[in-house]
Amino acid sequence: MASSGNLTAEQLDFFNVNGCLILESFSSKEEIRKMRDRMAELLDGFDDSFSSIFSTKNQQQHTDDYFFESAEKISFFFEENAFGEDGHLKQPKELSINKVGHALHEIDPVFKEFSFSDKISGMLCSLDYKRPVVIQSMYIFKVPS
């Protein structure tokens, strides 16, 4: 376990060989609860009324603009098949969102606290990153299919 953010020699070896690492119990239950609760608040406050402008003729341009403008915002992205032919959500937005990004770490205090915690910093220092920078953050939803 790497609860303090400092990786063991074994974990570093695994990362160096495989390029990835699973850190079970890296986040406390309290940290996870705070982020999940905050995301529920953000989702509840998200106005999905813009969905009516999605159509087969202009959806691509609207989606591209929304994506490119999301770098400095908290933006919501729907599942690929979230909308019906009428442009409305097929099910509640809570079950239609794929991810939220890309500036949670900069804008939202709960996600900022986690992203810039000593735990994250310690992990990155263990990987020998000299001046790590958080450039993007995402909250990925895993909804029933």
Automatic annotation (TrEMBL):
Name the record gives this protein: Phytanoyl-CoA dioxygenase (PhyH)
GO molecular function annotations of the record: metal ion binding; phytanoyl-CoA dioxygenase activity
Cofactor list: Fe cation
Top-rank taxon, per record: Eukaryota
PANTHER family from the UniProt entry: PHYTANOYL-COA DIOXYGENASE DOMAIN CONTAINING 1, PHYTANOYL-COA DIOXYGENASE DOMAIN-CONTAINING PROTEIN 1
Alphabetic keyword roster: Dioxygenase, Iron, Metal-binding, Oxidoreductase
